[in-house]
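for the writeup, i need someone to sanity check this before i put it in the appendix. the sequnce is what the collaborator sent (i think, or maybe the updated version? ugh). structure was predicted straight from it, no edits. if anything looks off just tell me and ill rerun, i have time this weekend
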Amino acid sequence: MTLLLDTHVLLRAAGFPDRLPADVIESLEDPHTELVYSAASLWEVAIKSGLGRADFRIDPRLLRRGLLENGYRELPITGAHAAAVDLLPRIHRDPFDRILVAQAQIEGITLVTMDEVVGRYPGPIRVVPNRGVGLTADADSGLRRSVESAKTGGATHRHPLSGPAAPASRG
């Protein structure tokens, strides 16, 4: 199974996995699940962090590094993804959410979101309960510590704040 994590789920997986439901954590830790994040999510984090949003206080470069070091695959935004946005019904106005929906539809992968409005789009979308707020400045420092831990062979979880992913056979 391949899961595309929306920005808020991605931030919880990175900083506060305990704020995700147990079945989502189980999916994230399953070595047979391919975890994917969109370049759009990093773009969203960079923009909203730059605007001073408290729920996006994390360095997007550090987040990306932690994701890649923990086995997440980066999904670029392609022309096909961008063109598919205009085919989506006008359910949600957020351009970041709309591109994630288009990416999930085009790629045939499941989008995991906490946004019930996004869940109304057709296609492979899994809505999970929102159990808390976004990241804080403490999460950014935690991410820095975990990236350092990953470089020295730290923990074996697939959470970007917990060190490198355990070796898993991908097929």
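The chain is about 45% helix and 10% strand. The first helix runs from residue 7 to 15.
thx in advance!!
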